[in-house]
Design a protein that fits this description.
single chain; mainly alpha; 0% strand; elongated
């Protein structure tokens, strides 16, 4: 339609691409990261469900999982917000919980698994 501006929907904050710090040219490590990404999205959905149902113990457990697992697969960016979320869940700080889940969601969307250039070498 005339006059309609085509703008990207999510302009709230720009998240830079996030790459695992593990060596992605090693097939074992690539596989670990590639398996982690869908698992992470699943866990973030569980966090949203736990928040919606006010299951704060469950939410704290999920945040605790992410705090450990994120670092293991090379996503240190996840550590601080996951730690903060775990504490916020334990202390029933609902506004902070919502903000931190959104932040983790944005981070998960920003993860980039590079194409493997070193196949068959």
């Amino acid at each position: 339609s005339p006059g309609a501006k085509t703008q990207p929907v999510e302009t709230t904050k720009t998240v830079r691409p996030i790459y695992s710090s593990l060596p992605m040219d090693e097939p074992e490590f690539r596989e670990i990261v590639m398996e982690f990404v869908p698992l992470l999205k699943q866990k973030i959905q569980l966090m949203k469900d736990a928040q919606a149902n006010q299951q704060l113990d469950e939410l704290a457990k999920l945040a605790h999982w992410l705090k450990g697992s994120g670092g293991t697969v090379g996503f240190s960016e996840m550590y601080e917000p996951a730690l903060a979320l775990e504490l916020a869940a334990k202390e029933k700080r609902f506004n902070e919980i919502r903000r931190l889940i959104d932040e983790l969601d944005s981070l998960s969307e920003a993860i980039v698994v590079p194409e493997c250039e070193t196949v068959n070498q």
